[in-house]
Amino acid sequence: MPSIAKPVAVHPSLHKNELGLTIRDYEGAMSTLCAGCGHDSVTAAITRALWELSTPPHMLAKMSGIGCSSKTPTYFVSGAHGFNSAHGRMAAIATGANAANRELTYIGISGDGDSLSIGLGHLCHAIRRNVKILYIIENNGVYGLTKGQFSASADVGSKSKRGEPNRMAPIDPVALGLSLGATFIARSFSGDKEQLVPILKAALAHRGFAIVDVISPCVTFNDHAGSTKSYLYTRKHARPVTESDFVPHADEILATIGQTGTTTVTMHDGSVVRFTGVPKDYDPTNRQRVTSYLQEHQGQGEVVTGLLYIDESVPDLHEMSKSPEGALSKVPYEKLCPGAAELAKLQEEYR
Amino acid sequence: MHQLLRTRINDFAVKLANVNGTGSASANGLLMQAIFRMGIPVSGKNLFPSNIQGLPTWYEIRVNKDGHTARALDYDLIVAMNSQTYARDVREVREGGYILYDSSWPLDKSLIRDDVTYLGVPLAQLCNDHFKDPRERILMKNIAYAGAMIAWLDVDMEIVTQLLDEKFSSKKALRESNLTALSLGYDYAKQHFQCPLPFSLEKMDANADKILIDGNTATALGCVYAGATVAAWYPITPSTSVMDAFTSFCAQYRKDPETGKNNCLIIQAEDELSAIGMVIGASWTGARSFTSTSGPGISLMGELLGLAYYAEIPTVVVDIQRVGPSTGMPTRTQQGDILACAYASHGDTKHILLFPSNPAECFEFAVKSFDLAERFQTPVFMLSDLDIGMNDWVVPQLQWDDAYRPDRGRVLDLEQIEKLSKFLRYSNEDENHVAARTLPGVNSKGAFFTRGSGHNKFGGYTEVPDEYQEVVERLLRKHKASAKFVPAPIIIKTKSARIGIVTLGGCDPAVREAIELLPQRGIDADFMRIRGFPFGEEVEAFLNDHDVNFIVEQNRDAQLRSLLVLETGVAKDKLRSVLAFGGFPLSAKNVIDGVLEQIGEPTHAVHR
Predict the structure, then answer these.
(1) How many domains does chain A have?
(2) Chain B residues in contact with A337 (beta carbon < 8 A)
(3) The domain containing residue A277 runs over which residues?
(4) Which CATH number covers residue A89?
């Protein structure tokens, strides 16, 4: 994101999406994060993904908790409602919001403190409920706003700015998601927009809860030698295991099916995720295989990235609850109130 | 057998002592319901342990032709079915009262009192002779003592049989066993004792327009009628049955006949933090949403209640109060969350509270909670309690006006948003200091950023003192404005009493009875039951109009009194306390004793 305010004028040559909107229409307020913060790159990727998908801005709900990451919903799509809630509680609030109005597209932005410590319980249960939301963890291994404490995602041996090593085992949101039955799991790097944008697009089309763990270095508190969440470390150790592409309309990709090393997964809404590069022993639809692959490669110090796991067969919260196709908040009151005559009848049972 | 000295009709109290988990509830409920159907004012209080099986449990039935159905504390008959509590139970029967015990075994000499009559019925023996299944033998002992009581108290057998027919319409075998057990007790009583006892029942016509319902069921029904579609909760005694009832009413009324879909979504959350978060989220996207909980849940919800208050999001919380602090006594009643709810969350917060006194008001106030929450865009707490919520009360039939439409408050629709030059979330307040809100998914022009962090009247982030203060000062004005909209107090003025007795919630019947009895002790008092917070003008006027006011409530710290001291201009020394907070429902005796203790017997009563 820019460190100076952009002019309001829009250049006529800017491309327009299906709604006739330019990418500028998907921008938000100016970022107040530190210059070089990984989160701003994630914001840029989100902005692009939403513009490319032609998501109507007013149909987007931007949810967050508290922390540096949670500030970022202000920095994209100012034409959407946003909710900067309370530390760790975004998953719960987003679940309720989604329960009331499933017609909206939900993006939840969280950090490793927000999601893996104070809000860990809510994250786990939102995964179990398969609430339809793109849930991004901007993961930097550190508490930024409170100035540099280790977070629960800090790796064993990773050093703080003052040189103290972390001794406690990290909570890995990808491993967590796999064990809890998450239906869409990805990891990416804020510095790899080419990988991140298609992942975000696929996540937005996913049937249920899509968890995207983005290593997003903190330039101020965790970008030094000895940190395992620095730009340098992540660039060196990132191993993109899958290369994927998101195709909104199924008919466009028929020609590529069957090519060596490619797999396609049809999303619940009919769009398609095309895996263009996947190792032979890797199957993004097989939870056990993905789990063992990740354990093996992470054991070797690699940061495995890509769209790692996907399962489009699991119903989301609404499908499980058999709620209406449209928003519950829009069901007319006349359908909700049984009325006076029914009340009189019912009360015969209380005699 | 004792000779009948005097016959008291429709005026007595029975206490049944049982072992939890032995099936006594159905026998006790049967008696209570039969008396209700006889048209007689009656109450049943279940005093149960936090346990599934084994601990002592009591059920009290009070019958009173004048309609006084608070706890009696003066028992005419004790049904002593629990050897663990024999000694305590025997002590509690009044002089000249009766004790039913199981004479299959001899009674311990230490339990013999010479001022009461023992009614021995060999219940275990009778049931062992007639039933084979061990579980059935235990269960049917309860029905057998109910049979004996039917004989002694003159319960209408036809009504009892009718109740069993209704209850077991699809379980013929159970109906037969129940009828058998009932006659075992009934016949034994008729053959061995003079029936009825000196206190007994006679049909009346006091219940024609009444129903027998618990507060949690009525609350759930209110939420259905209010149009709530999203409910989030975490299981906790004594509020669980609110959501159980809501779930079953939704199964009955919310399945769309055209689509077969459920017009509701009930989420069992992972904890109360999540439950309140879901309610806030659902309200933010425009649904009527609520949670039901109890004290520990209120504590956990604290942080997010402040968010809802500050970000101005309608939130309905049903609090079925139980005994605190901490885990406290989960199956015992108290009014201990008044202050915790009034000022829930850190920083300056004030909330709207509603205090229903019985299930009928639970129904009415549940609907009101949603209207107020949306009108004032703020959390509203309905403070019920275990006594109201889990006991069956005889109340007037619930009424519904089909002309009712939810008050959704100031929510801008598409047309209104399009007309705006710019939407400013916390500006353009109305006469109640409420600013219009917008919902997501309507129009980009209505978009804004909801935040619990410092914001100015435009909704923008701020750390500027004046801008911050401007918003929170409006919130205070808004809270004050809601005083006119919460239910007005119930005030009953007698003669020219100088004493006021003030109460809230389920204390109502005990306090009203006390006010009727106090003149016999030389004291006249006026009655006020507060039904909402913030307090309206009538509350303050009543307190000022009396030389002294006794605030009767069920907590140690006089929380209602504290709230009156803090939130009205009434002189502190005008407000005294009568407190009962051990966990059982209030009795008129608690009130009378509490008042007399402070102002003395008649000759000392200065405020006549």
Answers:
(1) 1
(2) 224-225, 227, 404
(3) 23-330
(4) 3.40.50.970
